[in-house]
Every structure is written in C-alpha cells, then in structure tokens.
Amino acid sequence: MTIDRSRIGEENELRLAWHESDLAHALDVVGRAGVDAEAVVAEVARFSAAAPSWAVGTGGTRFGRFPGGGEPRDTFEKIDDVAALNALTGANRTVSLHVPWDDPGPGDGAAELRRHAEELAVGFDAMNSNTFQDNPSTTRDGAVSYKFGSLANTDEAVRRAAIDHNHYVIDLGVELGAQALTVWLGDGMNHPGQASFRGQFERVLAGLGEIYAHLPGDWEMYTEHKPYEPAFYSSVNNDWGTSLLLAQGTGDRAKCLVDLGHHLPNTNIEQVVSRLAMVGRLGGFHFNDSKYGDDDLTVGSITPFQLFLIVGELLDAGGGRMPDAAYMIDESHNLKDPLEDLIQATDALQVALAQALCVNRADLGEAQQDNDPARAAEVLHRGFRTDVRPLVAEARRRNGAALDPLATYRAVGYRADTIAARGADAVATGL
Ligand code: LRH
Ligand code: MN
C-alpha cells in the first residue's frame, strides 16, 4: 500500500499561487527582523522526526480503545503508513520500532523488512526494547516475569532475561540498519519500603553496563526517565538527574532521552534540555504534549510556547542549527486518525523550529547581557508570534511533500484505501 504521490503534486498545484504570495510576505517579514529567512526554510527542510511504530495505530487507555479501522496489521504495513506520512510531511524519514511488538524475527524476517523499508525510503531510528510487559519472547516463555521489575529485579534470572532481550533488540537493529537503542524501564515501587532505592539503582546501572557492552561501536544508547507509571510510588529512572547518573555511569555513548510527557507539572523542561546538552549527554527526544501526566497528546497542542523554548535551547546548543540527536515522536492516539495526529505533530515541530529560528539570537544575547528582560521578551516573542506557516510549507514543498499535508491526506483518501485493503476492523499491535 503506497500513497499516490502524483495526487500530492496536484493538490499542491491548487494551492501554489496563494502559497507564493504568502511566502513572499513571510520572507519579507522575517528578513526585516534581521534573520536569514532562506536559512530558516533550509533548516526546517533538513529536520526530520522519527515516527513511532506504535502510534500508526490507535492507542487507548485502561478505560477503552476506539480503533478507526484500516490500521496496519503488521510491521510491513506500519512502514507503509510511515512512508505515506513522510510523503505528506517530508519530515518523518525514519521509523522507531518497538520489540517485540514489531519483531519480524531474525534472519530473513529482518532482511525482508529492511528491503521493504528501503524500497519506501524509510530508515530505522532508535530501537525500543520492552521489559515492562511479560511477552513469551522476552520472558523465556514465562520462565521469568517482569512483575517486580526487569533490570532492577532482585532475581538474577529476571535481570538476565532482560539483558538478553536488549541484546536481541540490538542484534535485530543491526540487521535493520538502526544505530541506537532506547531503554525505558517501568521498574520502580508502588509501596514505600517495597525495595531499596539504592539497590534498584545499582542493579539497573549494572544491567545497562552489560547491555552497553553489547552495543556496536557506532551505536548510542538512550536512558529514558519518567517519574511514575506504571510504578506509582517511585520509578528507578525517575528524572533527568538519575538518567544522567545512569548514562555517565554506563559509557560515553550512553545519553539521556527526554520524553516531554515524563516531567512533573511545571518542570522547566527547556532548562533540563540546556543542562543535558551542556554536558554532552542529550541523546534524543520523544516529542508529545500533555496537560496533566504522560498524556501522549499531539505535539504542541497544549504548551506550544514551551515547545518553542525547548527548540530554542536546542538551537543554542547547536550554534543556530538543530544539534545531532534522535528526534522522535511518542504519542498515543485515542480519538484522531493516527496519521492525521502524526501529521499535526510533525507540523507543530516544523512550526516551532521555524519560530525559534526567527528569533534574532544576536539581539537576544545583547538584551541578556544588558539585563534587559523586556527587550529579551520582545525579541523572543517576535519569533514566536511570526506566522511561519508559509516558510514551513515551502520547506515541505522543497522536500517534494505537501503544502497542506492534512487537507492533502484527506483529499487523496489514503485512509479509505487502507480500510478497503485491510478491513474496517484491522487494528494495529502495540500500546
Ligand atoms: C513510556 C514510553 C516509552 C515507550 C512507551 C511506548 O511511557 O514513553 O518511550 O517505550 O512510552
Ligand atoms: Mn517515550
């Protein structure tokens, strides 16, 4: 199943005249702020965020799941949908797989999946292991259980199984051409006194060390922190400080992954990003948005200004360009069509990047030096309040994608095609 790219071109033709006049105006407005507007378009066109394999289907909560039909039934179809997404946005060039949900099996299975992805020009981003659920393939057919944790478990056999699973995920990733592993652990406690904070930390650190020892020389490993859920009293890797201690204690190519939803309310996430970048341990992101907990909502849909500030810190760390890191989306789609949600998430990232690039950094630095907070705010908000949509659309057009991806997605009827091909009751594996 592929999306008809000629239809995308036709939809662009319908909008080209408007786009060109909007673009001319936007280039002029941005230029007057002393910012190189062409460089903004080029940097947005260079940006890409991996699509999460587990979010091309409908997610759900413990209270219910309402799939919309026509969802990918296996990993091959998930990659078809990521390719369709990328054809519309031009900024989702890779997919991040989750194992065992997306396990094609070693040998031919992996080679076949790699061939399929290469035909669709989709690459493999960071692999995700899963020791937060009991799956036969990760628990030696039920010989062990992750009920009381995986790497943090007091039972050596459970820890061994978890380490072996991560080795398996690395080996599979090597066959697929991936170059990074993300380790998120559900390990923690539900009850005070249930376990030793230090004991759990030391067992996790030792386990990460054994996983890291299996990492190919050109790979990175990311530790992903989260304050709670599924553990509701304490998580072993609960915040950026612990994640940094784990990464620094594991190896040079061990870095921290920042999932925006994994922070307690009012956490200054842009400051966390600045700190991790400052010490060279900012490995990657799981972009999403949230109002309360780890809500996994559409990027930029609740706190767009925070996203803008986070991207601003990235540009600061990258000398005016996005630093090399694993940019990925991590969402769970309960109400919207999964692909429409990913289109809007990617657009929000492109818009936040363009806005942050429209901040005149020299002027901002001057105002900061002069202790002139009002001027600093003026410079910052000028970027945030610039209508950058024509610049983002132009970046997509230059990548051969859609000027208006959501309208184009609906116009070409990709979902209707998948429902026809896969069935109205086809539901994806995953969260
Ligand atoms: C945990 C998490 C992690 C994934 C999972 C799908 O909340 O953010 O990154 O493994 O979601
Ligand atoms: Mn995540």
Q: Terminal Cα separation, in Å?
A: 23 Å
Main β sheet profile: 6 strands, parallel
Total beta-strand segments:
11
Gyration radius (Cα, Å) is 22 Å
Unreliable spans: none
Distinct ligands: 6-deoxy-beta-L-fructofuranose, manganese (II) ion
Number of helices: 15
Mean pLDDT, as a whole number?
A: 96
Order of helices and strands: HHEHEHEEHEEHEEHEHEHEHHHHHH
Beta-strand fraction estimate: 5-15%
SS-based class: alpha/beta
List keywords for this structure.
431 residues, alpha/beta, six-stranded parallel β-sheet, three-stranded parallel β-sheet, 15 helices, 11 strands, 47% helix, globular, binds 6-deoxy-beta-L-fructofuranose, binds manganese (II) ion
Describe this structure in words.
The protein has 431 residues and is α/β, with parallel strands linked by helices. The protein contains 15 helices and 11 strands. The structure holds 6-deoxy-beta-L-fructofuranose and manganese (II) ion (MN).
Give the gist of this structure.
By secondary structure, the chain is an alpha/beta fold. The chain has helices at 5-31, 37-46, 75-89, 108-119, 156-176, 197-212, 240-250, 269-278, 304-317, 338-357, 361-369, 373-384, 389-398, 405-412, 414-422, and strands at 51-52, 94-96, 123-124, 127-128, 180-184, 188-189, 220-224, 234-235, 254-259, 282-287, 326-329.
